[in-house]
Amino acid sequence: YTTRPIREGEKEGVQYHFTDLEGFNKLVEDGKVIEYRVYNTFHGEWRYFTVSEGIDLDNNNYLIIGTPESYKATKEYFGNDKVMPILISVDDGIRLQRALNREMKQEVPKYEEMCRRFLADAKDFSEEKLAECGIVQRFNNEDLDDCLREVVTFINANR
Length: 159
Fold this sequence. Notes:
Blueprint: H1 21-29, E1 33-41, E2 44-51, H2 68-78, E3 87-89, H3 92-104, H4 111-124, H5 127-132, E4 138-140, H6 144-157
Parallel strand pairs: 3-4
Antiparallel strand pairs: 1-2
Helix pairs in contact: 3-4
């Protein structure tokens, strides 16, 4: 879930569930928010958060995209035996170029925000934070097919 505005090409329920501050506060009040982060962006405060609503780990598998802190909170919420990290990494230069290429396709590119996100990720995914969460396994995303094959093998080996 996020309170940020939907971007061009995104669809509700595909990339994120989009809501406003009132919707976020209602989910918190109902005890459904597992973890959240607030980013002070160029465009104001944006919240990204994980909601427990509809998650059934006894009968289904899920992929949640988040930071090491969100992984840690999710693991604490559901239990160590229910959650495993999959860290996909790539060289910073490649990551920055991919972000720039995506931003250039936007009707109104927001380069300042793109740079802020890049720098925030460097802090969020620092070696210290990864170590605090016990995340050691990494999958290199220079070649998408190779990366996906390695991730699928890892998941199947650790079910």
